[in-house]
Design goal:
Structural class: mainly alpha
Number of helices: 4
Number of strands: 0
Strand content: under 5%
Distance between the termini: 26 Å
Largest sheet: none
Radius of gyration: 11 Å
Length: 67
């Protein structure tokens, strides 16, 4: 997890975390993404479905951004 936290060290607060892409194949992605978001001082939903929705939204934003 420390590596993922460092990946997003320079991601601006207005941008989705790059961790969304790195965690995309892990079944625990929303949980992991939430932990990284919290460590990067980002708001992350605590409820499981809301966390999954936020993660999926950020994955789509990153995929579109780097298309």
């Amino acid at each position: 997890m420390e590596v993922l936290i460092q990946v997003d060290a320079n991601t601006s607060a207005e941008e989705p975390l790059l961790t969304a892409l790195l965690a995309a194949t892990d079944t625990n992605s929303p949980f992991l993404y939430g932990r990284v978001a919290n460590r990067r001082s980002r708001d992350a939903p605590g409820e499981a479905q809301a966390a999954r929705s936020q993660w999926q939204t950020d994955v789509l934003h990153q995929l579109y951004r780097y298309k």
